[in-house]
Amino acid sequence: MNELEYKCCPCCDTWKLLSEFSKIKSRKDGLNVYCKKCYSEKRKKWTKTYRELNSEQIKDRDKAFHWQNKQKRNIKSKNFLLNNHNEINKRRKAKYKMNPDKFIIRSQMRKSHKKSCESSLTIKEWKYIKQYFNDTFGDRICPYCNRVMIVITQDHFTPLNKGGGYSITNIIPCCKSCNSSKQDMDFYEWYKQYPLANNKNLEKIKEWFTYINNTLK
Known about the structure:
Layout: E1 6-9, E2 14-17, E3 21-23, E4 31-35, H1 36-53, H2 55-68, H3 70-83, H4 85-98, H5 100-114, H6 123-132, E5 152-156, E6 171-175, H7 176-182, H8 187-193, H9 199-216
Antiparallel strand pairs: 1-2, 3-4, 5-6
Helix pairs in contact: 4-5
């Protein structure tokens, strides 16, 4: 074997091409002792150990850096958004089409956090709620007006401004028309006046809340 073209890595004990070793000027041969693969693994282990031993120091350092550079980062972020506004919107729309439920839940969680309300609904729970209110043919029926839903919205049964949380025990899937009509009114007050209200729908909604509350106990 021509040692001018190959070098032995002491970590994996394998002869490898010189191109598989990183360049280091301080060494006589100008190459790292370990091959790129072994050195990468060693660096990962060292970084993990260092972070575990110095976790508090790293947190304090990161916080200090964040506050020292907050204004610069905000300016940089605003400039980036202004210069790439159209591209960012295209990406967001594409991501939304791929997974609309994810974006809806994120948006609703932010609103709940702002009002200091519970925000625990997951995508899996939201899918389960929608499935519960499907009819026997699998159509998604609005629990309030009994019409097939083309666009499904999330209604807070107890409004956020009245202490209702964003959780499986307070979210009902309904059509856009019903959600716009109800707004932040008390459900029972609104439903009494609603032209499309009926007792069967009301019973199914009550059954859902009874079922889910008993399940979570």
